[in-house]
Amino acid sequence: xxxxxxxxxxxxxxxxxxxxxxxxxxxxxxxxxxxxxxxxxxxxxxxxxxxxxxxxxxxxxxxxxxxxxxxxxxxxxxxxxxxxxxxxxxxxxxxxxxxxxxxxxxxxxxxxxxxxxxxxxxxxxxxxxxxxxxxxxxxxxxxxxxxxxxxxxxxxxxxxxxxxxxxxxxxxxxxxxxxxxxxxxxxxxxxxxxxxxxxxxxxxxxxxxxxxxxxxxxxxxxxxxxxxxxxxxxxxxxxxxxxxxxxxxxxxxxxxxxxxxxxxxxxxxxxxxxxxxxxxxxxxxxxxxxxxxxxxxxxxxxxxxxxxxxxxxxxxxxxxxxxxxxxxxxxxxxxxxxxxxxxxxxxxxxxxxxxxxxxxxxxxxxxxxxxxxxxxxxxxxxxxxxxxxxxxxxxxxxxxxxxxxxxxxxxxxxxxxxxxxxxxxxxxxxxxxxxxxxxxxxxxxxxxxxxxxxxxxxxxxxxxxxxxxxxxxxxxxxxxxxxxxxxxxxxxxxxxxxxxxxxxxxxxxxxxxxxxxxxxxxxxxxxxxxxxxxxxxxxxxxxxxxxxxxxxxxxxxxxxxxxxxxxxxxxxxxxxxxxxxxxxxxxxxxxxxxxxxxxxxxxxxxxxxxxxxxxxxxxxxxxxxxxxxxxxxxxxxxx
Length: 639
Hints:
By secondary structure, the chain is an alpha+beta fold. A hairpin with a 2-residue loop joins strand 5 and strand 6 (103-110).
């Protein structure tokens, strides 16, 4: 590996570099290594490089290790010392020497720890020695976060299999139980489970149990979640919450917060099965169904997109941690869907995308869905979603594992990989230079344009190229003036570069144009139609919407005394569908950070118009803002 290749590592990988020079400069294991080891193991893994340092501009400088043999020996001694670290995740291939410019580095490739191994902690104390990888480095976990990991690690005693000895059949919702049995019968009319009375039927499903040692007997937590009365569920899980909303189009400034909503309001069976019955028809309403006869001459009224949406909904329901306050949130948007469930992923994202393995936080709940034909075989759900979206040539689903918020988000955008309007806009901006780019490069630019930004990770989801190749591709696009990089440290992201004629110093009009274009990149220009054959019409509507938003932003930038409602609308545009830091928001709107924070952001957060990236830490220096899903509120003010 040469110095140039090494310097590009930080572009796309989660890499941490440490000098590891020791007091004598010959090499030593730094104490901070173990915090990073724990953090990466408990998150999505990463790479630790010993023998280098990170410069202020984000580049890496190679220092080398004087005595790599001694450092390696100390490393392995610590890895096998359980008083130092709870689990050794490395082998000889994952801890290797690398020569760079004649100097020796020690590179550690830390994998994500398996479910049973988490939490990986240091100094023989999980409550004080467990770390996770946050947006800007390593963060010590709270005792509550550690307890969650310990609960998830206990695969032999899943939480939803717990016996609720003080509950009876009377705590189950009769209509839900009857509806479930009818669905079971329609799928398997001769199944022997149907010969049982309700209690025996549930017992066969694993939803009713008896402890042989204590003789305790009753419904399991899975039975209560799936079929219970809402008030009974809340007695066991006070923070239980389910919410579906269909959101309107537009720029977010209107008075209509949602077009349709399903929440726990007492008008339907407030349990997981009832929520599925209410929400699934709403998710697929309006989807086109081509006429198709199966070999048995029966009409098929579903497409792979219908099946994918069912998988996505069921996945959210069976993988959720129902003991947390945020609850299930499902959003149908004009351009797609967003499904959010509390609880982080139990498997690496790469393994979930590949399929073949399934680990559920609520396996009994998952089994109950499967027994009525809802949900695919183990590990095939997400690949089915990828297949359906790929068949439509839509942008690849985005699966996010948010450790900070302790939730999983799935974005299903029904927009083309190469929207016609986007290609036209980029062609106008860069001319033949864009048209002559290879497909992966054009995909990177199109993603940055339609989604507001592009990262190595996102581009890897959309193409078949290796992360390392994409690292150099993105660096090349920056060098050639197509992309602008942001965040010189970790988690680097890119936006479409401003036109060079606009970037030059000059009139106030040019300056305003710069800010408007920056805001346009941040807030994204994609308002794609959700229909394949209607894509051209959607593109026209998209262009009109983009011009309308651009006009509003131009007025804000050019007028220091713009109306309050216009400034608020502009804030929502820039912060739509992504978190934006205060300084970036101020630059986009040509306002001072103090003015925005004092006169707008505090009020908008309190009103529920904006969400904080760190709602529990309002004074966090990394704080950022995102336009809230309609009706969602946070009470803590921003810093």
